[in-house]
Amino acid sequence: MKGLKKKDENILIVPEPFSGGIFLTYKCNSRCKHCMYACSPRWKADWISRGDAEKVLHNFSKAFKKRYPEGYEEVGVNLGLHFTGGEPFLNFNLLLDLVKTAGKMKIPSLFVETNCFWAVTDEIARERLLQLREAGLHGILISVNPFILEYVPFERTLRAIRAAREIFDGNVMIYQEFFRHQIERLGINGTMPLNDYLNRTGAAGLLYAELLPMGRACYELGHLFKKYPAERFFHMSCREELTRPWHVHVDNYCNYISGYCGGISLGDARNLDAICSGIDLDDHPILARLVSNRGIERLYVYGVEEFGYRESRSGYISKCHLCVDIRRHIIEQTDEFKELRPKEFYRNLSREAQSL
Length: 356
Prior knowledge:
- Strands 6-5-4-3-2-7-8 form a seven-stranded mixed β-sheet, covered by helices on one side. The protein has a two-stranded antiparallel ribbon with strand order 1-9.
- The protein starts with 5 loop residues before the first helix and ends in a 9-residue tail after the last helix.
- The radius of gyration is 21 Å and the shape is globular.
- The protein has 14 helices and nine strands.
- 36% of the residues lie in helices and 9% in strands.
- It is of the alpha/beta class.
C-alpha cells in the first residue's frame, strides 16, 4: 500500500472491542450440533481463573467506558458484556463471583447466556436468578432451539423464562422466540432428538435458526446445506471477521477470539493493549494468509503444499467450513502456530475428530 513501510504492511490493526463475552469454560452439558465453539461434556472442566477473569474484565471495562454512558443497563446480543461458555451455570459460584467483580467495575449491559439445564424447580430458578441480579447482573439471554432441545427438557426452559421475566423484567432475551412458540405448540415435554423434531416440523423450520455455517455445524449439519468445491471460496478474505470489534469473545484460556472464529486466537486478552496496538503477521502465518486478499486461497495452497491437505470430495458449505477444515488438518500435525488455539477445539468439532 502506497505510503506504508514494509513493516507496517505486516501489522494487523485490531480495533478496541465495544461488546463481547467471556467463556467460563468450553465444557457444557450439551453437545449441540450447531455449536460454533465445539463445546461439549467431553471438554475438561477447565474454568477461567478468578485472577485471569479480573484482568480481562478490567480491560473490557476500560474499552467499554469510551462507548457507553455511566449506568447503562439495557441488554442486547451486541451490547456490553456477557458471561457464556460452554454452560456458565455449571459453576454457579464462579459465575456469581465474576458478576460481582464486573458489577464493581460498573461494566455496562451485563448479562449471562444459558441453556437452562439447571432450572429443575421453580425455587431453584428463582433463587439463582435473584442472586445474580443482586450481585449486579442486568439481564439474561436464554437459548431456545431444537439443538438444545436434544439435551435440556423444555419444561426447564419455560421455568427459567418465567423466573427471568419476574426478576429481570424487560432485560430478558429469548434466543429465539420462534422456537419457543413452535415447541410450545407442538406440546413437547422433556427432550427430543433432532431427527424426531425434523420429522415433525421439516428441515425448513431450521431456516429460522439463524444457523451460521461454521464450527461444528459444518460437520454435523452439512447435509442440510448445498456444498461447493474449494475454489468457489478462493476469492474471499477473513479480514473483516478477524478485526471485528463487536461481540468478540475471550475464552477460559484467555484467547481473544473475533468474528465467531473458534480455534483462532488473536492473542492473550489479559494484554488487550498489545493486541489492539497491532499483531505482527510475520509471527502469525495462518492469520497473515487469512486477512490477505484471496486469503482463503492462500490458506488452502499453504495447507496443500506444506501439510498435504486434500480437498474434500463432498465439498464445503461455506468459506468457514473450508477454513476450519484446513486448520484442523494442520493442527493435528504441528503445534507451531500460536494463533491456532485451543487445540481441543479442533478435536471436538465432530465425532470423527475426537478419535484423532
